[in-house]
Amino acid sequence: MSSETSEAPGNVVEEELIDPAEIPITARVVLAAMGGGLLGTVAMLPVLVGLPGLLGLFRTEPVTRFAGFAEFFGLEPTVTLGIALFGFGGTVALPLTFLVVGAFLPPETPRYLRGATFATAFWFGFLPGFWPSAGLLTTASYVLFSLAGHWVYGLTLGYVLTRTTGLPQHEV
Asked: Measured between alpha carbons, how far is 141 from 139 in angstroms, rounded to an integer?
């Protein structure tokens, strides 16, 4: 007889606690996604703004430009409005989008890494929107810090959603 057992080692953590195909998008799932988005937004700020600010690389003009479409509603673009819109996007808009498209993103496992894939896709839109008109060092730093910040956001969003309610799997 073999001394091998079919039991899994005691230190292995299960990837999914809930079958993703059985997770409907409910208010609880939406709130968990928004909570993950809020935590991700807060977690990315030191990487996206904090360290670049300490190095003298962060400027507020792009944030004000980001709020520029508020003029359509008769509002003056300001840094405060830009920050509010950035927070709204990271806490509401992106998590809701992730709930819909996250099921179709790689990798298959671990599922929380899909948040990094999602955030990388949005980083490609962020990149030209906030592109600095500066030298090579500032531009290279911007590219690296912004990508790292988006990965922190996506990993946080994906991890919180996966561990609290699970990431819903949709059929097309």
From this structure: 5
Within the chain, residue ranges assigned H as helices are 27-45, 51-54, 61-66, 79-88, 94-101, 114-129, 136-164
- Cα–Cα distance measured from residue 117 to residue 150, given in angstroms and rounded to the nearest whole number: 10
pLDDT value for 13: 41
52: CB partners within 8 A, 6+ apart: 58, 141, 142, 145
Dihedral angle sign, alpha carbons of residues 73, 59, 140, 156:
negative
pLDDT score of 33: 96
Q: Are 15 and 158 in contact (CB under 8 A)?
A: no
Closest CA to 132 of 72, 48, 70, 50: 48
Low-confidence ranges of the chain (pLDDT < 70): 1-22, 171-172
Which pLDDT score, from 0 to 100, does residue 77 have? 85
**pTM given for the model:** 0.82
Instruction: Tell me what pLDDT residue 82 has.
Output: 84
Contacts of 168 (CB under 8 A, 6+ apart): 20, 23, 24, 25, 29, 99, 102, 103
In sequence order, which residues have a C-beta less than 8 Å from that of residue 97 and are 6 or more positions away?
Answer: 118
- Two structure tokens written together for 164: 């609290």
